[in-house]
Amino acid sequence: MKILVTGGAGYIGSVCVEDLLQRGHQVVVFDNLSEGHRNAVDQRATFMQLDLADKSAVDRAVAAAAPDAVMHFAANALVGESMQNPYKYFSNNVSAGLNLLNAMVENGVKRFVFSSSCATYGIPEKVPIDELLPQNPVNPYGESKLLFEKILRWFDQIHGIVFAALRYFNAA
Question: Which residues are tagged catalytic?
């Protein structure tokens, strides 16, 4: 299977890329290198330095990559920073992600894994947390992840993009 990994030069994305390659998949990595590192990307993967905010570049790159599935790890992920600069978080984590989803629709890509966050839950009512608890983010980072999950539900309903959202608690 050919899998496109956004944010593949970051911590979680690069580990995922390595695992996918070891399992025999072809991997294409998109990363703008704003927080990731080029040397973190396994040399067996195809690498494209790309900003998901550039819609026309994303359209061309997804068409050229022709993936069977997408794993979306590209995001800004600092809770404190999101409280100082919410625009950056909504722009990158929501708007830029929409460019990726649109390119998937245009190219018939129907499988999507989203790197979400436990921050979508906010302050939990009980522990342990399960998927049925209400999602009430308390910062722009968590809200941006929740908004994108909601968008994914619509893209599934309207365009048949099947997705899974991974809500990590601590990736380290």
Answer: 141
